[in-house]
Design goal:
Number of helices: 4
Distance between the termini: 27 Å
Pfam family, one: SAWADEE
DNA-binding region: 16-78
Largest sheet: 6 strands, antiparallel
Helix content: 10-25%
Shape: globular
Radius of gyration: 20 Å
InterPro entries: HD, Homeodomain-like_sf, SAWADEE_dom, SHH1/2
Number of strands: 15
Structural class: alpha+beta
Main location: nucleus
Subcellular location: Nucleus
Length: 267
C-alpha cells in the first residue's frame, strides 16, 4: 500500500448539490481537477458551506479520489463481457489477469483453488481502509487493460458499492490472530490492524516493528506488538486482539491464485 494520508472523514457523504458541482468542475477541468491545490480549495469551500454543519471536515484527498473514480469510469471501455471472467495468476509474482491478457503463462502443475471457499477483502477509495467483501457484482476492463470489479462490502448496502482495481485493491481476507498462533508473527510481517482514532475506527495495513514476547497460555496472549502503520508512518503498541495476519504466502509476495472462474462469486 502506498503511503497515502488516510481520509479522516470516512463517513462523509457528498450531497446532491456537491456532486453536481463536482461533475461540473470535472467537465471544465478534466485531468487538471486532480491537482492537489485545486482539490484543497474545493474541500475548503465544501467544508465551510451551510450543508456541512455537523459533519466532519472534508479532506482534499476525498475530493481527489472522487475525481479519480470519475476519470476511471469514463475511461472504461468494457463494462460487461459475454465470456466468463477468468483469473489468471503467475505464481512467481502473484499477478492477476483476465483471460485474453496473456502476458504471463499460467503455472503448470498447480492445483485449482476453489474460490467459493475463499474470503476476500477490498480497499475502499473513500477511506483507504480494508473491508470484507460480501460479493462481487460485476467486472470491467479499463482502457489500460487493468481489471476492476464492483464489490459490495459486508455489512453495507448498495449505496456503498465501489469499483475496485483487482491488482491493487483486492486480496484474500486477513485472518484474526489467535493467542495460540502469536509465535507465527515475525518482525517485518505485513499485518492488518484495527486502528481507533478520534475520527475513525478502521482496519489498516502495518508492518511489525518489534514483538515483546511474554509467556502465556493458549487462551490469552500477553505479548505486545509494536507496528508501524503504512498510511501515516506512525507507530503503536497493540495487543493480539487488534492484529489480523496475512495468509502465509503473502508475507513475501502478493496474493497468488491459480486460473479459476470468478463468475460463481457474483452476488
Amino acid at each position: 500500500m502506498d503511503k497515502l494520508s488516510l481520509i479522516e472523514s470516512a463517513s462523509h457523504q457528498f450531497s446532491i448539490d456537491e456532486m453536481v458541482e463536482l461533475e461540473r468542475l470535472y467537465q471544465e477541468m478534466g485531468e487538471k481537477s486532480l491537482d492537489q491545490n485545486f482539490c484543497q480549495e474545493i474541500a475548503k469551500n465544501f467544508s465551510s458551506s451551510s450543508e456541512s454543519v455537523g459533519k466532519s471536515s472534508l479532506s482534499w484527498e476525498q475530493v481527489q479520489h472522487w475525481f479519480q473514480n470519475k476519470q476511471k469510469e469514463l475511461q472504461a471501455i468494457v463494462t460487461l463481457s459475454p465470456d466468463p471472467l477468468k483469473v489468471v495468476v503467475n505464481d512467481s509474482d502473484g499477478s492477476i489477469l483476465r483471460n485474453g491478457h496473456n502476458s504471463f503463462a499460467t503455472p503448470k502443475g498447480k492445483p485449482a483453488t476453489d474460490l467459493k471457499k475463499l474470503k476476500f477483502e477490498a480497499r475502499s477509495f473513500k477511506d483507504l481502509a480494508w473491508h470484507d467483501v460480501s460479493s462481487f457484482l460485476n467486472f470491467r476492463v479499463m482502457s489500460t487493460g487493468e481489471l476492476e470489479v464492483r464489490v459490495r462490502y459486508a455489512g453495507f448496502g448498495k449505496d456503498e458499492d465501489e469499483w475496485v482495481n483487482v491488482k491493487d485493491g483486492v486480496r484474500e481476507a486477513s485472518i484474526p490472530l489467535e493467542p495460540s498462533d502469536c509465535h507465527k508473527v515475525k518482525d517485518g510481517d505485513l499485518v492488518l490492524c484495527f486502528v481507533v482514532r478520534d475520527d475513525y475506527a478502521l482496519y489498516c495495513d502495518a508492518h511489525v516493528v518489534n514483538i515483546q514476547r511474554e509467556e502465556h497460555g493458549p487462551a490469552d496472549c500477553k505479548c505486545l506488538f509494536t507496528v508501524r502503520y503504512l498510511h501515516d508512518d506512525s507507530e503503536a503498541a497493540i495487543s493480539w486482539k487488534d492484529v489480523c495476519c496475512r495468509p502465509s504466502q503473502e508475507k513475501k509476495r502478493p496474493l497468488a491464485l491459480p486460473m479459476q472462474s470468478i463468475e460463481s462469486l457474483w452476488g
